[in-house]
Fold this protein.
Amino acid sequence: TGFGKYTYKDGHIYEGTFLNGISHGKGKTIYKNESVYEGDYKDGYETGIGTYSQDNGKYVAKGEFVDGLLNGQGKVFWKGTAEFEGEFSGGDRNGDGFVKYLKQFKQPVDDPQTINGKVWPSESSYKGQYKDDFKDGQGIANFKGLGEFKVTCIKGECKTDEKVALGHNKK
């Protein structure tokens, strides 16, 4: 019980408060792959408000964690490429969310999400529903220079329904 530092057999290091020999309260873990979690711990797990980063800050997740996974409200930043804010469940985007693709955005090969069969363009955004980490349901897409469109998404594949202009719908 109290503040301390412990190096685990697998090489990751925890520094923070302990309760009965288990990480509990505020602390920081540096993993062997150099990813870092800093925030609340409960009964040995990253649970509460915290920040997780990897690849020297190229990926950062902030928000409510349960057992090491985002759960509840959170924000994720992919340095220079995209930002997401919304609801999480079990580490996946689930519920309402907003993603903004920045100027330098290039869609990762392992991300199958599309708009009208094409990758999402840089400087676009989506506000709407997510399920199991994919855009899924109704939303609004905004494309630089083109405006806002209602979209329907199924498992990450989105299609524009109609343009939204000044509060009026146009086909």
Confidence is low (pLDDT under 50) at residues 166-171. The longest strand covers residues 45-54.
